[in-house]
Design brief:
The protein has 264 residues and is an alpha+beta fold. It is built from nine helices and six strands. A six-stranded antiparallel beta sheet has the order 1-2-3-6-5-4. Pfam families: GntR, UTRA.
């Protein structure tokens, strides 16, 4: 099927360094291990080491270096890749008790928007999962996850409201390695307000996601509507390093899904 992905070495190195920082073993002001030390520890060439260091720099965890060893910065903790991909992982990472209620699981023909997101033909079969997810018993987000049928067919037998979709797929060797997310503030419809136990017109944080494997195969399109009073965004960036966040001013009245290409 061409969708089973293996972890790359730079990801292992980046996770090792992140763990050192988050555990406090490397404190703000401490230098990172040298390239030579990391190459020896992981039996790696310099390429994966430099890629791992670039990941931490983009996350705002370390200084830019500029010819010297990068220094650990005083920065807020960051969410893991999985926590930004999966509501279940997000709640687990924050120590919250997750819950859920399945609204719908079905095989459907892909509409134009979904087909473009997943690089399918309009009308191709997809599997949609719609749920309300709760955090510590409070409804927090409505999620709509869509997968090409060859991937999503594994989800049609889901019966437990709180099963992790991504854990089910991971058990079959299906893992996302790249995700693009775009968010916009919207307001709750009457139906959304009922599901989330909020007032109609209350603010929502609407997030659209496209996920792919490192081979570039598109495996998921998702829409999340988070309660606005339950979400907070924290960012830390370093001058001179890449900033994987873009703020845009959009036209008033722009609806979710009207963004055009994600790099606009």
């Amino acid at each position: 099927m061409g969708i089973i992905s293996r972890r790359q070495q730079h990801e292992e190195i980046a996770e090792y360094l992140q763990d050192l920082i988050q555990s406090g073993e490397l404190a703000p002001g401490d230098p990172l291990p040298s390239e030579a030390e990391l190459c020896e520890k992981f039996d790696s060439s310099r390429g994966p080491v430099r890629q791992a260091v670039a990941t931490l720099r983009a996350d705002g965890l370390i200084s830019s270096g500029r010819g010297r060893r990068s220094i650990v910065l005083l920065a807020p903790s960051t969410s893991s890749f999985d926590a930004l991909l999966s509501a279940s992982a997000l709640m687990k990472e924050q120590g919250r008790t997750s819950g859920g209620k399945i609204l719908r699981i079905a095989r459907e023909p892909a509409d134009d928007r979904t087909a473009r997101a997943l690089q399918l033909e309009q009308g191709d079969p997809v599997v949609e999962v719609e749920r309300v997810r709760s955090a510590d018993g409070v409804p927090a987000v409505i999620e709509r996850l869509v997968f090409p049928f060859k991937i999503g067919e594994r989800l049609l037998a889901m019966s437990e409201d709180n099963e992790s979709v991504h854990e089910i797929l991971a058990q079959h060797g299906i893992n996302a390695d790249n995700a693009v997310r775009i968010g916009q503030i919207t307001t709750a419809t009457a139906e959304q307000a009922t599901l989330l136990e909020i007032e109609e017109g209350a603010p929502l944080w609407h997030v659209e996601l496209r996920a792919s494997t490192f081979q570039g195969e598109h495996i998921e399109y998702a829409e999340y509507d988070f309660r606005g009073d339950m979400m907070r965004l924290v960012m830390s960036n370093v001058r001179g390093g890449p900033v994987p966040v873009k703020f845009s001013i959009i036209d008033p009245g722009t609806q979710p899904g009207d963004y055009g290409e994600y790099n606009n």
